[in-house]
Sequence to fold (298 residues):
Amino acid sequence: MMDFTLFNPIRQLEAIISNIQPKGKYFSPSFDVEKLAFYQLCFELSPKHFCFWVKDTTCQQIIWVEEYALPILDDEASIVDNISLIYGSHEFLKSIKWHSIRIIIDSQYFTQVPLAFFRKDYQHRYLQLAKGSALTNQEEILCTVDDNLDLVHIYSVESELVNWFSETYPLVELQFAHLTDILVDYATRSTKANSGLLCIQEDSFLLVVTSAGKLKLCNRFTYKTYQDILFYVMVVCHELNLKADEIMLRLYGQVEEKGELQQLLEEYIKNVHIGDQQNTTVVFEGLSPNKYIGMLNL
Fold:
């Protein structure tokens, strides 16, 4: 019998995604689905990546972590097409009894504007300058204010995604933030030294440079080889007048301790470390907390 799924794009998509299994799953025996009212649900997502964790607000412990690699869709598809199908078979994600929900977005387009110069009426223009082109009708602009740095984080997110979360959790307050918001906040709070925080991803990396607790640079760079990453780091250090022996580099994301990237950077920069999680207690064997950036400011 002929399989008509091959000729139906929607059925084909469902067949692929419905078979997705978590690439990482960790949970504590203390997790209790009857206690969701005491748990905070946190998401970190991009077009290629979907991760969530559950924090028990009574003890500030992370008690569940689950991560998925998302199939690459065509340009007209939405990330909602992926995660809604994951939700369809999940045991507790759809509940509306959560204490609170935080959603960390790793979207391509973002910028920061000093609070003193920020005008809400101009937020589209700020982001268009960063993007280099006009925003589409499918994009929504969100902003978060960093009062400690007198800074406004501005970023775009799929309108469909924002609406989907609002409809999925109608009774829970949703807190959105951009991944760079988390990185900048952690980088400036965790050290007063000259510091570079790198978040390594599949084909790009985020670089946050701080000095004396002040933000000097936040940008995304694409790369093909680790030599490309080294090149950008050295150029940034030169432009900011930072010597290689005066800066501490912390590596997060898709990077292994004493791996090829760390060894390459150490040839030119004295102080290179796999990033730590100062405020997060790791309770799962095999979990590498430096890979989960959104946990940095828990």
